[in-house]
Amino acid sequence: MTEAVTALPAFPFRVRTPGEALDEYAKLRAEAAVTRVRLPGGHEGWLVLRHAEVRTVLTDLRFSKEAMTRPDAPRLIPVHRGSRSLVNLDPPDHTRLRKLASREFTQRRVDTLRPRIEEITAGLVDAMTGSAQTTADAVTALALPLPITVICELLGVEPAEQAQFRQWGDKVLTVGGPGADADAAREAAGALMGYLTGLLERKRARPGEDLLTRLLQAQEDGDSLDDGELRTLAMTILIAGYHTTVSAVSHLLVHLLEDPARYQSIVDDPGLIGTAVEEALRYSQVAGGFGSMRIALEDVELGGVTIRAGEPVIPLINSANRDESAFAAADELRLDRTDNPHLAFGAGIHFCLGAALARLELRVLLETLVARRIPLALGVPVDELSWHLATAFPRPAELPIRW
After folding, report:
1. Diameter of the chain by CA atoms?
2. Measured at the alpha carbon of residue 240, what is the angle toward residues 303 and 281, in degrees to the nearest 5?
3. Highest mean pLDDT, choosing among 7-21, 136-150, 197-211
4. Do 233 and 101 form a contact (C-beta atoms < 8 A)?
C-alpha cells in the first residue's frame, strides 16, 4: 500500500489578523523548532520557530542573504535581481557598506535628533487633539506621519515631495500571498530609485545638512560609496525607517490601549516607558521575518532537521519573540519586563541599522502622550480592527482612538 503524502502547509498563512498568525506559529512551535512549508512560487522551504534556532539563522553566515538576490531564488518580498542593498549582502561587501553607513546611526548621532523628533511629535499630537473632536484614526494622525516626516527630513526630501515619496514606499514591501501586488511593488521601487537618483544629483550640486549629503561625503580608509550604493542605501533607510516604525507605532498603541489599565499604568508611572517600548517590540507582530529569509549555503543541522544547501530558510522573529523557552509568560504583555532578549531588530551582522532611531521615536511618542495625560482609549473593540497583511510589516488599516 502506498503511503499518503501529506501536503505541505502554504506560507504565508491565510489569516485575518496578526494574532491568528501567532496562533499558527504556536501550534507549529510546540511540535518542532523547524518545519517545512511551501512558498508562493512553489518552492519548498523551512520555517524556523523557536528563539534559539531563529537566533542561529540570524547570526550564522552559512545562511546567506545575498543568495536571495539570484534570479532563481524564491521570493516573499520583491527582491530585485542583483540587488546590492545592505540588507541583502554578505561579507565582505556587507562589512564595507555597513562600516561606511553605521556612523550615521550611532546612539550619539541619533540622540542629536531628539529635539526635532519631539517637535514633530508634539505638532502631530496638537493637530490630533487641538480641535473639538475627541476621536481620530491613530494610523493617519500618528503612525504614518511621524516616521515618514522623520525619515524624509533625515534624507533631505523636500516637504512638497513627501506625499509621493510615501506612496512609493507604501507599495514596495508587498508580500507574496492573498492581496499582494508584486508588479506594483516593482514599479514603485523603480520610480523611487529614479527619484533618489535625482535627489543625489541635487545634493551633490547643493550639499545640505542631511543624511544623504553626509553619505555622499563619507569616507573610510579612502573608501566611499558610489551612486548605485548610495541609491540603494537610501532606499534601505527609507524602508527600514518608515515601514517598520509605522507598524511598531500602530502595534504599540493597539496593545497599550486594548487594556485601559496598561496605558494608565504608564501615565501613572512614566518610568515604565523604556521597558514598555521594549516589551511592545517583543510582544507585537512587527518583524515577521519575511524580509529575513535566507538561503543555506551548505547542509546545516538545525532543530533536529537537515537543511540542505540551496534551500530557503525563514527565521520567524514573531514566533521567536513568543517562545516560552526564552520568555517567562511569553504570551503576556508585561510592561516592566527587564529580562527581554527579543529579536525585533534581528541579530548578528544584519541587526537593524536604525534600531536606535526607531526606539527614540517610540519613546518620544509615549513621553508626549503621557506628559499631557491624554486619556486615550480604543474607539472600537480590538477584534473589530481590519489589518493590512499583504506587507512585510503588517499594521491596522485604521486605528480608531478616542479621548
Report:
1. 76
2. 60
3. 136-150
4. yes
Three cell numbers at 22?
501567532
d(CA 158, CA 145): 14
d(CA 105, CA 119): 20
**Using N-to-C axis directions, what is the helix angle for 273-283 and 355-371, rounded to 10°?**
120
CA torsion angle 61 62 63 65 (round to 10): 60
Closest CA to 180 of 388, 16, 8: 388
Q: What angle do CA 21, 27, 33 make, to 5 degrees?
A: 100
Q: How far apart are CA 86 and CA 66, in angstroms?
A: 9
* CB-based contact 314:11 (threshold 8 Å): yes
Residue 249 contacts residue 239 (beta carbons within 8 Å): no
Neighbours of 51 (CB within 10 A): 24
> Cα(171)–Cα(102) distance, rounded to whole angstroms?
26
> Which triple of cell numbers denotes residue 295?
538561503
pLDDT tens for 362-390 read 999 999 999 999 999 999 999 999 988 76
The gap between the terminal CA atoms of the chain, to the nearest Å, is 66
Residue 55: closest CA among 333, 359, 316: 316
Q: Where are the domains of the chain?
A: 18-402
Whether domain 18-402 has CATH 3.40.50.150: the reply is: no
Query: pLDDT tens for residues 155-189?
Result: 888 888 888 887 887 777 665 555 556 677 778 88
For 372, other C-beta atoms within 10 Å of its C-beta total 14
Residues 74 and 46: beta-carbon distance below 8 Å: no
For cell 489578523, name the residue: 17
Is 87 strand, coil or helix?
Answer: helix
55-81 confidence digits (pLDDT tens): 999 999 999 999 988 888 887 765 555
C-alpha atoms less than 13 angstroms from C-alpha of 173 in its C-beta half-sphere: 27
Residue 35, beta-bridge partner list:
47
